[in-house]
Write a structure and sequence with these properties.
heterodimer, A: about 700 residues, alpha+beta, Heat Shock Protein 90, Helicase, Ruva Protein, domain 3, 8-stranded mixed sheet, 7-stranded mixed sheet, 24 helices, B: about 375 residues, alpha/beta, Arc Repressor Mutant, subunit A, Dna Topoisomerase Vi A Subunit, Chain: A, domain 2, 2 domains, 6-stranded mixed sheet, globular
């Protein structure tokens, strides 16, 4: 499943050997968290246990809600600082620093059991309800697979399967990834907070290394069943099947069984977790997750096997793996004082000048000199001094901000790309439109059912025929540039990728894709799909900066309706993707993007670009429909006028009529409209022929 | 005077010419269009010399190949064709009848050529102004209303009718009163009295006012129809009879007087034939209630619509007359209106025995 996890660096090893796996919090955060919550019992304040319990990543929204920027920053700190358990002295409240107290307390400090932590905090990990448990498990497994495949340059092929009944379900996720070295399997699936992505500044999906093992533990707690893992790392190598249980008290994996077996595929991993869950209520979210993941990952081939339904196959829309996102060093502008000090502590550089050059991007010797000069610090300042002196660090930080430093390189970003967004939307719609045939799925909150409210009228009036004609005409017109025929319906698809931008030293890039048309209803709010680093954001739509940017765009300019302060209304789906080494989420639950003006402005620019193209398309189509309508009105009246003129003047009725029809043709788009009508006629004839043939076959039988 | 037949031929020629123009255009592949004189306030003006409202020169293009005008274009020829039929067989019919004659479903739609009579009536008026033929000349008439009695003999479609012997019912004024249909015989009338409504007309008839006063007594049931207006105009013009108008004391009543005297916006093109610039307003004047001591409770409080109408009327160029303005301004100031019947408070025949004779004697009227 995750090669990445397999080769988790020496840091992780170092940390686990220190026996403080639960100390998952950056020191800065727990200090705050701990202070805010009243101490629970004697072992409170500074004990690692208390820290672990109070400030795992997802906790942040409540603990740090007032300062969004900080909440987000801590996410990065997590990555960088996790290895260093002790609290940075300058951030901890003074009373916690009294050595005597700490020593006394140390007597009472003991390791908290993982299961205790977990059962108290499952909501932080996405297991707060049986409905959400399935989604979280699938999401963690799929994210891992995708990250691993991307890193090893494999085009991913993932099979997600849900089986079971009632409240017992098995989640199975299988990939064609690089596989996992057997020795690493137990730790990855049977130990919390073991991973490779935590320590790097890079655009990736997963981060904390908590997800899949938490899912395994959730399964174990609710069913008592171990997690099962099949993995194979290469052709000719043996495959392994392992059953792993978590020793929840000590947070160590226990391998229950280990057998060697043959697997047909060359490499890949499959994980199966049995758990208590609510599939009937959770399926909607699962489906959305799967579909939207496919949408944002056009290089992914995905199969979703569901209980009591046909499996969904999403074919690969792109045969190139995405450009691999490169790991970058932090840019000085984005680093805050606490981080600076910790980095200094970790650094092998002897003096601050080389520390700046080695640990940050875009800092040359000259730039480092400028920074030091601006900060009023000596060139010979030693890194160790910086690590211990908050004042020095403050000065350095100020010096950094006063110095002009080149923006970070943006090659660390891996956007989906204009063309692939297009392909992704096409393949997404191909499958989703099929789905709409099954109204019981209720995929888009009732859309599916109502969309196909076909009713056979006994007699068609000309108005109805005109409406049909218009529709048929729209269907027969060869696709305009940008239009795609998907399952017999036409969609206008357009996308826009903004150039990379930098905010606070963090490169980011915005992409927008838009699909319009089909037979989606005209009077409904559009579908908005939000993504961050190719991961769909399924919740907290209202709190998200992306939603904000969409509602603040004037869609009326682009021929859509839009209620005041709301999302636009019309037959449209909108995809917004933000790629960044560091996505500014509103909270650690990673469900909504923060409202950064720079980010919102970029989103709006991309939306406007797509909007302009959409408007041009809609206007063109409206004009064609208008000509069609005009002609049909004139033709209706020509009958009357030619009769009256004949009665009044004795002129030849047929001749007058022909002349008028010819005039009508000229004034209503001439040949273009003719062509539309010809195509409609041809189509109708084909239809008639087909039904005639069917009738004959009926009769023969 | 042209006979009916000759008149019909003339009208037929006009209609056919209109249609031929369109056929020619179509043959030449020119987008067919009609030009219809505008019948709106903006296109009427008051001819101060003739003292009548006249239609201006503004015309509206009605192009067939214009989505907004196509239907009206089609309807115009539908009506024209129906009129041709009427003219050819020498029959006349009501505009309601014409609505039914021309109403049918379009092709296989749910649409009709006309949905309501409200849609066909203006088309008839458009046709009248477009071909410069009057409704009567198109052999059409509106639902008739209006009664007349008086010391006069007339010939109506060849029948001699003595208007002195019409009992309590009176002679119904037809829609078409052109010389080809109605001609005047012997009479002793000294003037024409046009009252607003039938109830008042009945009082005057029962009291044999017309006999005593030697006048033609006629009503038009509110705003008088074309037949009544045209007949009054003919009596005025051909028999040189003065015309007096008796209406309610409210803006609508006063506007009836204005229409009789100077014509209306909608039928501005008919003013020449229908307006009676010499018509006189005898009442009820806004100053009468005080002068004739009408008790307070006979008044009706004016509502917002009444006030608005007065304001609107004061803005018409043909309401420049200072005395008229005084009437309307006093009405607005009092905020009260009085029906003619309010005078009955002073006695059932007060109006025929005292009020009107005194007014005429004192020449207490507006012109």
């Amino acid at each position: 499943m995750a090669k990445k996890k397999a080769d988790a660096g020496p840091k992780a090893g170092r940390k686990s050997s220190a026996g403080t796996q639960l100390d998952l919090l950056p020191p800065a955060a727990p200090a705050k968290g701990a202070r805010k919550s009243p101490p629970a019992g004697p072992a409170a304040t500074k004990a690692p246990a208390a820290r672990a319990a109070k400030a795992p990543p997802a906790k942040a929204p409540t603990a740090k809600a007032p300062a969004k920027a900080k909440a987000v920053r801590s996410h990065r700190e997590l990555e960088e600082l996790r290895d260093e358990p002790p609290a940075p002295p300058e951030l901890a409240p003074p009373k916690l620093r009294r050595k005597a107290t700490a020593e006394q307390m140390a007597q009472r400090q003991r390791e908290i059991s993982v299961s205790e932590f977990f059962s108290k905090n499952r909501h932080l990990l996405g297991f707060d309800s049986p409905t959400k448990a399935l989604l979280t498990t699938v999401k963690e497994a799929v994210d891992n697979s995708l990250d691993a495949c991307e890193e090893s340059g494999i085009l991913p092929e993932i099979v997600v399967e849900i089986r079971g009944e009632g409240d017992r379900w098995i989640v199975s996720v299988e990939d064609n990834g690089p596989g996992i070295v057997k020795a690493q399997v137990p730790k990855i699936f049977g130990k919390l907070l073991y991973g490779s992505k935590f320590h790097r500044l890079k655009q990736s999906r997963g981060q904390q290394g908590i997800g899949i093992s938490a899912a395994a533990m959730y399964g174990q707690i609710t069913t008592g069943k171990p997690v099962q893992v099949w993995t194979k790392t290469g052709k000719g190598r043996p495959a392994h099947k392992l059953e792993i249980q978590l020793d929840t008290r000590r947070n160590v994996p226990v391998v229950l069984s280990d057998e060697e077996l043959d697997l047909a595929k060359d490499h890949g991993t499959r994980v199966e977790i049995e758990m208590q869950a609510d599939y009937s209520r959770g399926q909607r979210y699962l489906l959305r997750y799967v579909e939207q993941t496919v949408l944002a990952n056009p290089h992914l081939a995905m199969t979703f096997k569901r209980p009591n339904a046909e499996p969904l196959h999403f074919p690969r829309a792109a045969n190139e793996p995405p450009k691999e996102a490169l790991e970058i060093k932090p840019h000085p502008y984005g680093v805050e004082v606490g981080t600076l000090m910790l980095m200094a502590k970790e650094s092998k550089s002897r003096d601050v000048r080389s520390f700046l050059q080695n640990e940050f991007s875009r800092v040359s010797g000259g730039v480092a000199d400028e920074i030091l000069a601006a900060a009023g610090l000596k060139k010979s300042l030693r890194t160790a001094q910086l690590a211990d002196d908050r004042d020095l660090a403050e000065k350095l930080r100020k010096g950094i901000l006063d110095t002009r430093i080149m923006a970070p390189s943006t090659n660390c970003l891996s956007p989906i790309g204009d063309e692939l967004i297009r392909q992704g939307l096409i393949s997404f719609l191909s499958v989703v439109e099929d789905e709409a045939e099954e109204p019981e799925l209720d995929l888009f909150e009732g859309k599916a059912g109502s969309r196909r409210g076909k009713r056979k009228a006994p007699e068609k009036t000309s108005e109805e025929k005109l409406a049909e004609l218009e529709k048929a005409a729209a269907d027969t017109v060869p696709p305009e540039p940008g239009e795609e025929i998907i399952k017999g319906k036409k969609f206008f698809i357009v996308s826009s990728t903004r150039p990379p931008k930098v905010y606070r030293g963090n490169p980011f890039q915005v992409e927008v894709g838009l699909a319009y048309g089909g037979d989606w209803p005209q009077d409904r709010t559009i579908e908005l799909y939000r993504f961050a680093n190719r991961v769909p954001l399924l919740f907290q739509r209202g709190a998200c900066g992306i939603t904000d940017a969409v509602t603040k765009t004037d869609w009326k300019k682009y021929e859509l309706q839009q209620p005041r302060g709301g999302l636009p209304v019309g037959p449209m789906s909108l995809l917004v993707h933000i790629a960044s080494v560091w996505v500014p989420f509103t909270s650690e639950s990673k469900e909504a993007i923060a409202h950064y003006p720079e980010l919102l402005a970029e989103i709006r620019l991309a939306l406007q670009d797509c909007g302009r193209k959409l408007a041009a398309f809609i206007r063109k189509r409206k004009a064609a429909a208008y000509e069609l309508k005009r002609r049909s009105i004139f033709e209706l009246y020509i009958e009357e006028v030619s009769r009256s003129l004949h009665e009044l003047t004795g002129a030849d009725r047929a001749k007058v009529k022909d002349d008028l029809l010819e005039l009508a043709r000229e004034v209503t788009g001439g040949e273009e409209t003719d062509e539309i009508l010809d195509r409609v006629a041809e189509k109708q004839q084909r239809k008639r022929r087909r039904s005639d043939e069917e009738m004959e076959m009926e009769e023969e039988r | 005077m042209a006979t009916r037949d000759q008149q019909a031929k003339k009208t037929l020629a006009k209609i056919e010419a209109l249609a031929k123009g369109v056929v020619q255009d179509v043959k030449k592949r020119k987008s067919p269009r009609l030009t219809v004189p505008l019948r709106t306030l903006s296109n009427v003006h008051f001819n101060a010399k003739r003292k009548i409202i006249e239609l201006g020169k503004d015309r509206q293009d009605r192009a067939f190949f214009n989505v907004a005008q196509a239907k009206k274009f089609m309807q115009t020829f539908l009506v024209a064709s129906a009129c041709k039929e009427l003219l050819e067989v020498g029959k006349t019919t009501s505009i309601r009848d014409l609505y039914y004659m021309t109403k049918h479903t379009l092709g296989d739609t749910k649409q009709n050529t006309f949905e309501e009579q409200d849609e066909s009536d203006p088309i008839i008026e458009d046709l009248e102004v477009t071909v410069d033929a009057l409704r009567e000349e198109l052999h059409l008439f509106a639902n008739r209303k209006g009664l007349m009695v008086g010391p006069m003999t007339i010939i109506d479609s060849g029948d001699t009718i003595d208007l002195r012997r019409q009992g309590s019912g009176g002679w119904g004024v037809p829609s078409i009163v052109e010389p080809s249909v109605i001609s005047f015989g012997k009479h002793e009338a000294k003037y024409v009295l046009l009252v607003e409504k039938e109830a008042v007309w009945s009082r005057f008839n029962e009291d044999k006012y017309w006999k005593k006063e030697q006048c033609m007594l006629i009503h038009g049931g509110g705003q008088p129809p074309r037949g009544v207006r045209r007949l009054v105009q003919r009596m005025h013009a051909e028999l040189k009879l003065p015309v007096y108008v008796l209406v309610d004391n409210d803006p609508w009543g006063f506007y009836i007087y204005s229409v009789v005297k100077q014509g209306s916006i909608n039928l501005a093109y008919e003013s020449m034939r229908m307006a009676v610039p010499g018509a006189r307003f005898v009442g009820i004047s806004s100053f009468d209630p005080e002068r004739y001591k009408l008790p307070e409770e006979t008044a009706i409080r004016m509502d917002e619509g009444d006030h608005k109408r007065i304001k609107q009327m004061l803005e018409y160029p043909w309401f420049e007359n200072k005395k008229w303005r005084r009437e309307l301004e006093a009405m607005a100031k009092n905020g009260k209106k009085y029906e003619i019947e309010a005078l009955s408070r002073r006695g059932i025949s007060f109006i025929t025995e005292e009020y009107l004779p005194k007014k005429l004697r004192d020449k207490d009227y507006l012109e």
